[in-house]
Amino acid sequence: MAEFLITSDNRKILHIDLDAFYAQIEIRDNPKLRHVPLIISRDPSESNGRGVVATANYAARQLGVHSAMSAAEAKQLAPNGVFMKPNFQKYQMISNQIHQIFHQYTNKIEPVAFDEAYLDLTESVLSGATLAAKLRHQILKEIHLTSSVGISYNKLLAKLASEFNKPNGVTVITEDNVLEFLSILPIASFRGVGKKTQEKFKVLGITNGEQLRRMSQEALRAQFGKMGEHLYWQARGVHFGEVKWQRQRQSVGKEETFDRFLQTTQEINLEFEKLVTKVILAMSKRSFVGRTLNIKIRDSEFNTITRSVTQNEPFKLDKHILISIAQSIFDENIDAPFSIRLLGLSFSNLQSSGFEEITLF
Ligand SMILES: [Mg+2]
After folding, report:
1. How many C-beta neighbours within 10 Å does residue 92 have?
2. Are the CB atoms for 291 and 351 separated by under 8 Å?
3. pTM for the full model?
4. pLDDT one-digit tens code per residue, 232-252
5. CA of 297 to the centre of ligand 1 (A)
6. What is the pLDDT of residues 66-92, one digit of tens each?
7. Which residues does the entry assign to the active site, renumbered to this chain (predicted)?
8. Which of these, 330, 317, 316, lies nearest to 270 by C-alpha position?
9. What domains can be seen in the chain, in order of their start residue?
């Protein structure tokens, strides 16, 4: 049988999913909870049986508890389980910390949920498997949480891969093993196959990816319409969706207006020092470096000048170097005596800082 494969897709797409995120965080912060069934939900006995399970740890899952189940049902399955109200503020904060790690690898990040994202790592020189290992290790070391990662050449396969080896696993799908991987996949694992479609496939005698791939495009279309068309390509691992990331901002900077105008070099120096510290922090938080440094100066008469310095390589985020550049731009452009009402400092031509060292002090 002739197989159609797209072999020109050499992207590196990673899908990451933190394992039982909310439950894992609560266990991290209170290890006594590890061996009891933990259900992140309001306790049904305190809320008249209302409430829905946000997530549950693996001990609770073994008893049949799963997310989106009613808390009352979970209580029946796990009568000795611990119910804990979700603390979304905390989860959001930890999600932000994890995203700061993502940004060290790429800014091409598509968040799916607090605990789930796609990263486009095509530009990295490292292999997919190495990137997955590094990222997982870093999250474990710095945030103390495990994750499951799938890596492949498109989003569909990356997602299927991360689901395949849960919890705390890595799956790499390449062109060499893609058909093998898809062949054994249960039909319900393909995107868009719900209970009804699954039943229909069962009647047709189709329960896995290999059988799905044997169906012709025409037959699939006849049976399932547009969904059938999608499934034809899914069975071959073909998917062209892009990682939808937020275009990075044009510049990062700060400016300061002074009620009492600055009139001495010492005052200018001190204010540049404050600005540089703030901007370095803002850049570091977002894991950016910039090739252009912009300085803005406005005097008491509202004359404003902006000056920029562009380098081939990004500026090192070194406080002393940046203050001295800002100071010399000031000296070159402003004659004494002066009276300054505003100073600004920003970076543009931004790029991801990757693994470059950041020197804060
Ligand atoms: Mg998760």
Report:
1. 10
2. yes
3. 0.67
4. 999 999 998 999 887 656 789
5. 48
6. 999 999 999 999 999 999 999 988 998
7. 116
8. 330
9. 21-88 (3.40.1170.60), 180-234 (1.10.150.20), 251-352 (3.30.1490.100)
